């Protein structure tokens, strides 16, 4: 239906024929008026069937400002540069090449302790001075484990004869000897306030209260071969232990004195080689990382509340030590044959961020500075290396480059 044509035929098309004079009757005019109104109403309804085009928003900013802001990028965090070589390399003659021992520790006092056979040396990182704290007797040595107390003043020294000596490094004297802890050498030590936990070649784990005469207060039984790894959680409630029996145990401090024959919280059997490398996460209290020896070569992550294995990564070689970065979600591992390298992993993706080489033998011992930026490693190649793998704080000036064991070089 063509309303325009119909309207034309009813009005204009017949004007000359039906009304040559241009005059219309009143009835015709009324009809034409009603017809025009109907046509206009129909046109309006059809055009309104579609939605009206949206009204463009008012731009509150000038065009120049908007264009410049679109090209501005958010300030990106500068990418950390990871040095591919050690910051310095020092000689460490006569360090024992033994996977099951723990002979390197960096105290809260910024003093690095290293055991070289029967001698214990201290290097003060703040001024570069070096001193010999003690030399154990031939019948007692060699030194098999060391660990700084949280106060940074006292250090525990585990010996091959099953005893543990406590030394005051300020006074330079031995305070006491803990006897009868084990039936063999003391492989590993861990502090929990004034409680010193010892792990021995006999598979035993003992809590020693160093403030009382009868120092043995609790013991843990579960390992049936020598214990080579011990670490307390930051809360001081859970203890992780690893042994040459390929077992990893999680112990609860408040279950140790119970009469139950099974004292452990979790007995974890997923590793297939000795478990020495242990590290509690600094940002999640119940997250533990563990590393297996040459027959296992894996790094595993555990929820110690439930005992669940959260992830397992093939590291490619023997894992001897693990350290968490205190400033980033990263994990550093040290390795043995074949590359004797350090690997920096991004957590939780476990993407390799860097592989650091330099040691010519397996990297057995690893510790970090109190500020969490510098890592020290010692290996069977009789060298001690320092790595800036976790970065360098801007507010801290670099320590003077002095060789802490320079005078030992002349003895070789």
UniProtKB/TrEMBL annotation:
This protein's record includes keyword Cell division: yes
GO biological process, one term: cell division
Keywords from the named record: Cell cycle, Cell division, Mitosis, Repeat, WD repeat
Cellular compartments per GO CC: anaphase-promoting complex
The UniProt record lists the keyword Cell division: yes
SUPFAM superfamilies attached to this UniProt entry: WD40 repeat-like
Region of interest (Disordered), ranges: 49-89
Domain of life per record: Eukaryota
SMART domains recorded: WD40
Name listed for the protein in its UniProt record: CDC20/Fizzy WD40 domain-containing protein
């Amino acid at each position: 239906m063509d309303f325009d044509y119909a309207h034309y035929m009813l009005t204009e098309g017949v004007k000359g024929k039906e009304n040559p004079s241009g005059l219309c009757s009143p009835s015709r005019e009324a009809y034409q008026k009603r017809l025009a109104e109907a046509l206009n109403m129909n046109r309006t309804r059809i055009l309104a069937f579609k939605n009206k085009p949206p009204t463009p928003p008012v731009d509150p900013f000038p065009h120049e400002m908007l264009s410049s802001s679109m090209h501005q990028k958010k300030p990106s965090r500068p990418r950390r540069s990871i040095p591919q070589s050690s910051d310095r390399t020092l000689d460490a003659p006569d360090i024992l090449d033994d996977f099951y021992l723990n002979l390197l520790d960096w105290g809260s006092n910024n003093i690095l302790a290293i055991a070289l056979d029967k001698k214990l040396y201290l290097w003060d990182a703040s001024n570069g001075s070096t001193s010999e704290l003690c030399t154990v007797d031939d019948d007692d040595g060699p030194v098999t484990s060391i660990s700084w107390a949280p106060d940074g003043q006292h250090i525990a020294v585990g010996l091959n004869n099953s005893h543990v000596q406590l030394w005051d490094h300020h006074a330079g004297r031995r305070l006491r000897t803990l006897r009868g802890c084990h039936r063999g050498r003391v492989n590993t030590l861990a502090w929990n306030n004034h409680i010193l936990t010892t792990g021995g070649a006999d598979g035993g784990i003992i809590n020693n209260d160093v403030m009382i005469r009868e120092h043995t207060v609790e013991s843990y039984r579960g390992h049936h071969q020598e214990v080579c790894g011990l670490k307390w959680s930051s809360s001081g409630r859970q203890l992780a232990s690893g042994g040459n029996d390929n077992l990893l145990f999680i112990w609860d401090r408040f279950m140790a004195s119970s009469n139950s024959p099974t004292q452990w919280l979790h007995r974890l059997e997923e590793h297939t080689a000795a478990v020495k490398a242990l590290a509690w996460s600094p940002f999640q209290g119940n997250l533990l990382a563990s590393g297996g020896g040459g027959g296992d070569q894996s790094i595993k992550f555990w929820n110690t509340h439930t005992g669940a294995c959260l992830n397992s990564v093939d590291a490619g070689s023997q894992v001897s030590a693990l350290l968490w970065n205190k400033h980033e979600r990263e994990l550093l591992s040290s390795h043995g044959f074949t590359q004797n390298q350090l690997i920096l992993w991004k957590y939780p993706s476990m993407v390799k961020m860097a592989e650091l080489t330099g040691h010519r033998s397996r990297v057995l011992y690893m510790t970090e500075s109190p500020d969490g930026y510098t890592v020290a490693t010692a290996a069977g190649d009789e060298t001690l290396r320092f790595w800036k793998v976790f970065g360098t704080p801007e507010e801290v000036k670099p320590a003077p480059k002095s060789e802490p064991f320079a005078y030992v070089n002349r003895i070789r």
